[in-house]
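Problem 12. The chain below contains 676 residues. Write out its predicted structure in token notation.
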Amino acid sequence: MKLKTIAGIFMTTAVLVGCNKEKNDTIETKAEAPFEYVAEEFADIKVLRYQVPGWENLTLKEKELVYYLTQAGTAGRDIHWDQNYKHNLKIRKALENIYQNYKGDKAAADWKNFEIYLKRVWFSNGIHHHYSSDKIKPDFSKEYFNSLLKETNATLAPEIVEILFNNADAKKVNLDESKGLLAGSAVNFYGSGITDKEVEAFYKTKSSPDKDRQYSFGLNSKLVRNASGQLEEKVWKSGGMYGAAIDKIVYWLEKAKTVAENKEQGDALALLISYYKTGDLKTWDDYNIAWLKATKGNIDYISGFVEVYNDPLGYRGSYESVVQINDFDMSKKMAVVADNAQWFEDNSPLMPAHKKKNVVGVSYKVVVVAGESGDSSPSTPIGVNLPNADWIRAEHGSKSVSLGNITDAYSKSGGTDKLKEFANDKEEIALEEKYGELAGKLHTALHEVVGHASGQINPGVGTPKETLKSYASTLEEGRADLVGLFYLYNPKMQELGLVDDWKSLGRAAYDGYIRNGLMTQLIRLEPGANIEEAHMRNRQWVSAWVFEKGQKDNVIEKITRDGKTYFNINDYEKLHGLFGELLKETQRIKSEGDFKAGKDLVENYGVKVDQAIHKEVLARNEKFKSPPYNGFINPVLVPKLDDDGKIIDVLVTQPKSFAEQMLQYSKDFGFLPLEN
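Solution.
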């Protein structure tokens, strides 16, 4: 599971490298110079850089390991592009050919709009917006685009050109059941014409040898109809679908295994390699268990087809990679949350039958990201809790990480103007300025470590993707958010030495969550739109539910002043109680597999937008130049070689621009055919 910032802003990393020599098209980071976090801005996006603090303290062997892992991660980049939409690779090739070869008027407005369109496509890993999943519309004509194709000898089939400008494949991930979850989704996980019911029927026939340890069926395959009309899986593995890229992933992972820090890490890497070679889901489970046990080293990573948010049916995982270096100082400070996971479980408002009697294996680290790819880049989570399989979490625990240098880069690149615009009063502003950053870090920790690890499903009840279907992701993220919210306003935070004033910190956290859930996150939506993205949905349904249930006691007051709307919390104690009630109910829905109650909660509170408030929020936000979405270009790791070609050091450099990095990725990591 991934956590995106409460503000809803994401960021990224991924590492690109020249294999044999330093590239002259990168600039080495100079420690003595002020670090430039902001690379550029366009459309609704701010592209940032991030640092890799502590790199100089790693051993050569550790640097090599990070280098190999980031190379492996970036090798799979194009898998995610193809997963997002079947024509993405063809479109990207045409757009990049135009960008690199056009000799015409580059001062013209149409050309400027073309450049922005290409950058938006790069940022979103395809032609659908990375957050809303709406198709990105060019601000230039089809005629102009065709002239660019002709002038640069770039090719793109006319029928695909039409798609860029018409209403076909308008939504990457459609969650409106009335349109058909698959029929309304452009994501490339299923063959044409396959229906929701067919998929459900197909996987009802699948069963693991151990009914209590079900495999993640569908996680690493595309479901298609064969020549006989029967459904079958095209497995993502070496020799299978995406095999050309997966072979490169394996190549670099095998190098990484040679410099593993310890036996446990090496064993986990061996299983991951085997999984990529075979596509075997039992091996995937074995790998995740081994990966959980490998906690001793300084380096860790995430690799695979992991999160299922992009599949409207919740089966198929998007490719991603994250390479991490432990931040020992911050990890020590925050590990206290993991150490007290059982206390949090025992003292939660859940029904006794839904509490875990023994919370096992929860580990929490603050990490320094060295590279990200696929679903984690350019927009990135700030926290991750894996694995996702409920039975593995129950029996073996989970790993939770907070991406420390990502959150640091975000905090150092922003300002407080928006806070002052949407906060109700000076007290709210002061609380946010003093406690907001810490509240965010603690919410991340509680969400990932305690939230996702908490609660249990009743015996005999299916997995959430089976019982809660398209609502499973937003319900799980909301449930984890609620765990964090419930405990942020609790003296235990101060008792554990995490805060100096638990009430003030809790109030700051509650103010920020409600302000965002009911108002400020709406800047990401087009006028008239409903909410589709899982995290946005969960922030609204949590906020809207407690607002409604607290109206009788005026717990949260809607205030209109000078034509502007504000939400002011009048009773933090009662709000804390409401968060607990909602957490109890959300866990019940998950534990019992209550689809109707889950659907009602999301649809009644999390989907529809108050259009009057939305219009107002957009108008108030117009004066701010800062875009609503943030992401990252990745540092470039450059190996330094001796005369015999042996790595003697690895340098951390920064690309000059977003475009430079994207073009370099396409050149050095474009392993897939344009059609897969």
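Discussion. The two ends are 28 Å apart (CA to CA). Students who got a different answer should revisit the alignment rule from Section 12.3.
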